[in-house]
Amino acid sequence: MVAEFKRYRLENFRLLTGVLQILGAVGLLIGFLVPIIGFLAAAGLALQMLLGFGVRIKIRDPLLLTAPSFIFMLMNGYLCHSFYQNLF
Hints:
The chain is an all-alpha fold. It has four helices and no strands.
């Protein structure tokens, strides 16, 4: 992963990205008990994956390397929608 972040020229954001992903995962688990936390975690992870997808597009990665970030963005978008429905 260190080499990947250097290739993206984002090595200064590696630790922040990891921390946000761990917090997002914990937030998704807590979201089963407190839906607003799950909603915020899923929205944050979806945004992070959208940005990751954008970086992959910008550095012209092939589709096979770009697809996971897009798929995870869609999955987190679905979770965000599901948690939102549980709020009301």
